[in-house]
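so i finally got all the pieces together for this one. its two components total, 735 residues if u count the protein bits. some of the lines might not be protein, just check the labels. i wanna see the whole assembly predicted at once instead of chain by chain like last time, that was a mess tbh
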Amino acid sequence: MTVARTAMAGTLRFLVLSVLLPAASALLAAATPADAGDMTGYINAGVGVRTGEGDVVYLRSLVNGKFTHQATKKLSFRLETDVYYDHPYFRPDGRFNARVREGYAKLRFKNADLKVGRVQVTWGDIDGFIVADQVSPFDLEHFIIPPFDEIRLGVDGVFLDYYFNWSYSMQLMWIARFNRPDLPPSDSPFDLFRINNIDNALPGGLRIENGPRRLPAQTFENSEAGVRFTGTTRAADWQVGYLYSWDDIPYFQFAPNATKPGVIDAFQAHGRYHLFMGNIVFPLGPTLIRLETAYNKDRFRNVVIPPDPSEPFDLAVRQDQWVTAGVVDFKPTFDWWQNADASFQVIYDRMIDPAPGLARVDEAVYIGVRLSAAYRNDTIKPRLFAIANTRGADTWVQAVIDWEPFDQWRFSLEYDLFDGHEYRGFLPGFNNAGGIYGQFDKNDLVVVSTRYSF
Amino acid sequence: MRDLHRDSRKDSKNNGLALSAFAVCMILLTFASAHASEGEKPDGAELAKQSDQAQRSDSEHNVMTMTLENSRGQQRVRTIEGYSKELDDNEEHRFVKFLKPSDVKDTTLLTYDYREDDDDIWLYLPALKKVKRILSSNKTDYFMGSDFSYWDMENLDLANWEYRVTGDETLEGVDCWILEATPLNEDEREESGYDKTVSWIGKADMLPRRVDYHDTKGRHAKRLTTGDIRPTSAEDDPRPRAHRLTMENYITKHKTVLVMDTLELDVTVDEEIFSQRNMRQ
């Protein structure tokens, strides 16, 4: 009865907000004087139901607003915010949230642009898999069910783009503090970073409790910095970059609870690492080739064999990781496939000299495909994305149809299929199958959403 | 449209997204210097070639409204701003920015159009915050949901089509030559998606008044009608251009209307316009 009441209340709130939020936004946009700036955005209401469990795991009403103001020829401002309400049924109550995804002042000089504030930074050129795009954190609360462009968050700092000429540029950045990604709560079916059997390595007879997330202190010493060079030539576009950063992907620290005997606290923590990246995109005959590589140096990762036997709770090591992606874009020519786009991608993920008992796959190859089309004068747009680990038991397929019958409106139907299981290869008797997509095997879901852009 | 714009440039070049606001304007190519004496049929290929020369401009700026209308009369409206600049005989740069509606606002396309090679094309999607190099589209694909295919909107090469003046006719009070074009080879036929195009060219101003498109299945698939022919927005520029283009698709019962709100020829266009930096502004 209580569950039913909660569900009904949540649904009612969802429906009310789906009406109120769009109305408020439309009024705000309409009330903005033309000379005060430019305001755009969208309202999105979506619900996702797991097909196996039959429960609502994604229920979000979101208003996105973007405001830009050109104060002078050289000075402009930009603000992008999300206000949203979540009420998936694995939570006892719905939750309002608001965030500033961008908010900065921009100074434009003859050969440079300087931004100060919160900025979304994109590195690299690979879609659907994070290789070099590690500067801005992501909202991963629902894994990556929403598209990448809607889940990228900003970082706070100073960003200088210097243009040597129209073909070559340099980006210098200083990020004042660690901007953490939004990660799913531990009771979410989308919980990304789990202890995942690492507890088997701890002394027996102990109970593990999740402790608070450990974030770096907001000090100058903990700031981040990076540089990237970009070239755009007739033959190819390329990027080369370096970033000294905090890792958005957490690892676990363990410690005996000071007050509860027999209890071990597990903390999600973030470590410092170095990112070296390179990227090149070039046409080759009727195809476009995208190559991207990232060398992640000194990333903290968990192990199930303590490096120091005298420190049984210290289950983390520094690891170097190399991730490379190769993508081929092309345009199939079939009468029935209108406005066709296709791409195949291969991703190679390797840990360099993996530590004994490393609690993640040490080498993996992923094969991906992305297909899209547009029919009836671009009012019906189907697309398909699939990625699979060649070791097996680690697959994700996402099929989406967008219907845009009127300007500013979009209705979407999405199906996500996950297959496999979590990676357990570090345990005796298990092979190297399984992984990040496979761990969501029970999360096959249907998502329906409506969007109004203003 | 295409047959009216042939310029003997690219052979099998996939120009695709090179379609731009500028390219749309280029469909208004005239045959100004290809007059034939009364009663004498002009040579089709010569007519097209001379008209192309007559219609070229070094640079252009335009703002256009594109209205898409389905068979039930439902409309979708886009506003597009474009710049173009011809650097030399071998290279032209084009910049297109979507101003409306809000879901595509600030999406920009930058095209470096090379005479002998494939175009370089970059797309900036504001939501993604990055400029991406993209592939040219298949020429039979339609541009942004419109009824103009990429082939319709690009420049042609005279070498792969045969032009023939089949007669003359008065169209809405304007005396026109009827110009029929057919592909000379199977590759061009497949690439264009057409078996034949038939154009009605005003004898006095050499501007196209109508173009019929016949697809490879032998169907009369589309008709382009031009209107509001008058001098461009720029002061002291007497050159006439059509400011309204209507493409009706008889297969899908859909039509697209392009209205030039602003059209300026040979304006000063800073090369910075055609930079990735400008795409992100």
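The helical segments of chain B are 21-26, 44-55, 150-153, 186-192, 276-280.
Chain B touches chain A through 39 residues (CB under 8 Å).
anyway lmk what u think
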